[in-house]
Design goal:
heterodimer, A: 2 domains, two-stranded antiparallel sheet, about 0% strand, B: about 80 residues, two-stranded antiparallel ribbon
Amino acid sequence: MDQFTLNLLVVGATFALYIGIAIWARAGSTAEFYAANRGVHPVLNGMATAADWMSAASFISMAGLIAFVGYGNSTFLMGWTGGYVLLALLLAPYLRKFGRFTVPDFIGDRFYSQTARIVAVISLLVMSITYVIGQMTGAGVAFSRFLEVQSSTGLFIASAVVFAYAVLGGMKGITYTQVAQYIVLIIAYTIPAVFISLQLTGQFLPQIGLFSTHTESGMPLLARLDQVLVELGFRDYTGNHGSTLNMVLFTMSLMIGTAGLPHVIIRFFTVPKVSDARASAGWALVFIALLYTVAPAVGAMARLNIITTIYPNGTAETPIAYDDRPQWMHTWEQTGLLRFEDKNGDGLIQYYNATPEFAAIAEERGWEGNEMVTFNQDILVLANPEIAQLPGWVIALIAAGGLAAALSTAAGLLLAISSAISHDLIKSVFNPNISEKGELLAARISMAFAIALATYLGLNPPGFAAQVVALAFGLAASSLFPAIMMGIFSKRMNSTGAIVGMLVGLGSTVLYIFTYLGWFFIPGTNMLANTAENWLFGISPLSFGTVGAILNFAAAYITLSLTKEAPEEIQELVESIRVPRGAGGAQSH
Amino acid sequence: MSDKSASAYWAANVRIITICMVIWALVSFGFGIILRPLLSGIPVGGTDLGFWFAQQGSILTFIVLIFFYAARMNRLDREFSVDEQ
């Protein structure tokens, strides 16, 4: 059986599974559609949260992101996991006790204000829509790469599958498909990682292998990697080459951004009890950590592996000839993710970092530039099974895993978008008298509308799709997280304070990002060049979410000190969400 | 639940949260980033302890922290009789 048929079979089987779950888990009420009737076991919710959280980017790009920078990009590892501590300790149990369906629900009721609710809906829609674009394009790309179809065709197939289980099953369908998708993606990620770790270090666990001895050189793996990188003119892997301030602020922005993302928060509305919400965040992190502790090992090992493939006798000796390159390089050259150019016409592949400092050595050796001209970071994961010479079904599994990661995150985001429309806008603002059946129908129509919008944006992605994810985290960090936290931890916080805080946080973050990246990301409209010299106190636009959050808190407390504190009944409401007893099933208004 | 025990319960909760948050910040921002130069004398597999905390240790600590908090709060809920029945 050829690889294509195998990919088709494995991906087809997983899709059949997702559709089967959708038919089994049809939603019959709004409580089922929005919150799976609050009947999801905390461990299963942890798995679903992990799949919801880990996107196509986590699955495909994370290892490469770390491999090409090394220590400096540990920010992603700490930031995207540390946020769950904030969720478990500061938000999830109280929001579960509050017992509603959406994030704007909490903000609107706690701050007794339709304005606050609408500000929350707007920031939710902006961040979730920008985030979903990346998932849809990711799904399209994954399809086109593995199933040899046009990426637009791939996108339509992905939309149709999501449509089937999200419109039918709502949160209930999404939850149980996410559990299945988690299992597919974690198996796909782990198998090649274990094999590459065994080959390089003899260690079964990649997490241990990363800090073990590299069998071939007899040196510690990371020391060996540092050595060969420096010999080829790259910066060492384990050193810190960036600003410590930005590293701290960026990690913090990712942490509070993670805790403020609505599609993650709503997952904790699905468990039966407050104590389950706390434990479930722990389980979510266990399942996320299975990938996030393996990713840095995959990154470092794959990078070392590729260098030793090109320089089999050490970096001081001749590299391999282009004609002798391994089969996986042939395969991936066809995709354009890997490209060589024989600049000095010697038929050999010289891979190095052509910096001015390295020029003397390069000249002495007759090198005329780096000849591995394209080396896409996604290859480290995608080509891993081939590099490790694993059988075809593992490659097929990677295809299914990448698609599972993209689809599960897209579905979670689509639910956050559709419930904001049907529940927070239609039910809470425009038509409070809508019947249960009417709202369920509205929820399904909103979901269909959200999928259509996401498909359209996936087909015509705005050129700024990559930067927009940074914006989503910045907004979540600077608007929703502080508002929710003050809603729980400050009994006196009033509506004016919360609204002013959210607007200041949102406004300052958007302004700062647009100043350096262009208004609405239109190239050329940025007022200052996006370089470290221009940044305020050297703070990168990506790290600004932390500052936005601080400004949000400060503005809210200053406003509070000038206005009357929250009314008695709201303070009582806060008292009641602080204790677990009495968290019943789903309630509507 | 009386006002007095409600505020005692909340104060105890905030105290547990504070302890957990201090550890949370120490392993990530501390050991992983700011204090890494101080830990550079402690070798771990070809690099130093700070690198290990940045790429493995902080994540493992986060998991332990959440389960510790969940278990500690379950006990606190029972002590103050505010657990779910």
